Amino acid sequence: MNETIYVSVGGLLALAVAVLVVIKPTRPATVTALAWLASIARRAWWWLRFRITWKGVAREAGLSKRRTKRVKKMGVGEESIERWRDPRLKSVTTSAHAVTLKVRTRRGQALADLEAFAPKLAATYSADAYRVYPPKRRAGSTVMFELVMRDLIKTPTVAGMPEPRMQTESVLLGRRQSGKPFHLQIEQRHTLVVGASGSGKGSFLWGIVGSLAPAIKVDAARVYGIDLKGGMELTMGAPLFTQIAVTGEQALERLREFVAIADARTEELRGVSRNHKPAPGDPLYVLVIDELASLTAYADQDIKKEAERLLKRLLSIARAAGVVVCAFVQDPRKEVIDMRGLFTQTIALRLRSAMETNMVLGDGMAPFAPAHRILKAAQGTAWIIDEDGSTDRIRADYWSDDLIRRVASLYPAEPELVTISDAAPDDLPGMQLSLTDGGAR
Ligand SMILES: Nc1ncnc2c1ncn2[C@@H]1O[C@H](COP(=O)(O)OP(=O)(O)OP(=O)(O)O)[C@@H](O)[C@H]1O
Predict the structure, then answer these.
(1) In terms of domains, do 255 and 355 share one?
(2) Residue 28 falls within a domain, yes or no?
(3) I want to staple 318 with a disulfide (CB 3.0 to 4.6 A). Which of 188, 236, 262, 290 is the partner?
(4) Pocket of ligand 1 contains residue 394 by CB under 6 Å
(5) Where does ATP bind (predicted)?
(6) In this structure, what CATH number is given to the domain that contains residue 207?
(7) Which DSSP state fits 345?
(8) Where does 322-374 have alpha helices with state H?
(9) Which atom of ligand 1 is nearest to the CA of 395?
């Protein structure tokens, strides 16, 4: 028997080699055709594999229920028949990188049991990542599992110069795990980005500020910064900012100013419009806070208390008035996370534990958006929750220091608006360098 298998496999390999020799696989057209065939074969294999093995996997994972039924056998007493009730695999669809399963609960099964099955399913099929989301119909009893079989965002990509058009509604930050572009909504949203040290928060920060650059230049967006780590991060692109606060007092001033702007705008808009629409001269105000904890957890008690009060007020009133906050933080501890509910979108980069994932994305989210499983080497990768409640994995494009400086010098904020923080230049060693580099002030 074994010999027959060896001979068959050997024969097939010989045939494949002969075909490759005849069709010369180095020709570009042949390479494309072979890649296409390989993709079709791979998708067919995935489809078959999931269809064939589904019931066995569901049973081993304890999702199915076994029932033993006794039936009468003609003239010779009774016999036991075993019956399984399995969650129903309604459809299997494949794409170039992923398999999506639509599964319906079996009778008497809670939807939550099926949803909690996602990590086991992903491990069984060696998926690189997974997500669970509700289908368009029958969301009460059916769930969609997307298993990423080939990780399209494994290789990092580098950001390019932003499109030279004014954009404030949303910005292009990178790719979704499907390979499609990932746009982050900026208008009408307060954004919280959380990730351990070295997880790649900088790519999100500069992706947001850098993509707003053309709007900054025409004063359709004004970006202010708070960077209590000595201005280290924001200084690199200082010309893009209208002001950068580097001390607790300056940060409080900025927060008060933002609350006042939001209040005045809300008053202006009352009865006229529900949402502010940014335009040159009537800008979107963006407050970028690098390391939120240095303001709400590590600062002096007085500053901390006042900053928290102002920030909470800002987060609860401002977004319709065209005043938004983008905050970045390493450590999702209580002092910071207290405010999480007030942020309208949260991005979770690599975190240290499932508990942190639940803290950042919401209770019970760890199995659906496992940010604690992101590898150290996958900087810039994060989990998000989309508007429809489904989760997705994304990877931001990398912003090099050189690109940040180039964008900042090409699109500086209006020079007459720029009033870099009132701190003495001697207090800000990095700032002076950047001001000269940017050439704006
Ligand atoms: N999108 C990305 N793709 C690939 N590599 C990246 C990406 N973003 C960052 N990196 C790499 O990861 C390193 C750390 O990134 P970054 O400084 O943004 O992390 P961080 O989360 O801001 O860390 P910290 O909180 O300690 O400042 C960078 O120097 C870069 O080499």
Answers:
(1) yes
(2) no
(3) 262
(4) no
(5) 195-202
(6) 3.40.50.300
(7) E
(8) 334-337, 354-361
(9) 1
Asked whether 141 and 88 are in contact (CB, 8 A), the reply is no
Cβ of 207 closer than 6 Å to ligand 1, yes or no, is: no
Q: How confident is the model at residue 32 (pLDDT cuts 50, 70, 90)?
A: confident
The alpha carbon of 171 and the centre of ligand 1 are apart by a number of angstroms equal to: 19
Residue 33 is assigned to a structural domain of this protein: no
Pair (144, 201) in one structural domain: no
pTM above 0.90, yes or no: no
> Ligand 1 centre from 198 Cα, in Å?
5
132 and 196 both lie in a single domain: no
Q: Does any ligand 1 atom lie closer than 6 A to the CB of residue 229?
A: no
Residues 217 and 333 in one domain: yes
Contact 208, 161 (CB under 8 A): no
Mutate to test the pocket of ligand 1, among 175, 203, 328, 331 (most ligand atoms within 8 A of CB): 203
421 Cβ inside 6 Å of ligand 1 = no
The answer to whether residues 317 and 237 belong to one domain is yes
Per the structure, how many domains does the chain have? Answer: 2
Q: Determine the length of the chain.
A: 441
Nearest ligand 1 atom to the CA of 291 is: 25
Boundary (domain end) residue, out of 116, 151, 186: 151
Domain shared by 208 and 136, yes or no = no
Spacing of C-alpha 309 from chain mean position: 28
- With respect to residue 38, please indicate whether it lies within any of the assigned structural domains: no
Find out whether the beta carbon of 232 lies less than 6 Å from any atom of ligand 1: no
Is residue 197 part of an annotated ligand binding site?
A: yes
Looking at residue 100, which CATH number applies to its domain? 3.30.980
Range of 122's domain? Answer: 54-151
Whether residue 305 is annotated as binding a ligand: the answer is no
Which of 226-240, 266-280, 353-367 shows the lowest mean pLDDT across its residues?
266-280
Residues 6+ away with beta carbon under 8 Å from 378: 154, 350, 395
Looking at the fold, whether 88 and 236 belong to one and the same domain comes out as no
Listed residue (190, 175, 162, 400) closest to 313, CA to CA:
190
**324 CA to centre of ligand 1 in angstroms:** 24
The pairing of strands 284-290 and 221-227 is: parallel
- Burial of residue 272 (number of CB atoms within 10 Å: 0-12, 13-18, 19+): exposed
Question: 182 and 93 share a domain?
Answer: no
Domain's final residue, options 91, 116, 151: 151
pLDDT-wise least confident of 56-65, 109-118, 197-206, 337-346: 337-346
* 132 — pLDDT class (breaks 50, 70, 90): confident
Ligand 1 centroid to 377 CA: how many Å? 10
- Give mean pLDDT, residues 51-70: 92
Residue nearest to atom 25 of ligand 1 (CA): 197
Q: Is the CB of 225 under 6 A from ligand 1?
A: no
pLDDT digits (tens, 9 = 90+) for 193-221: 999 999 999 999 999 999 999 999 999 99
Q: Sort 120 into a burial class: Cβ within 10 Å, 0-12 / 13-18 / 19+.
A: middle
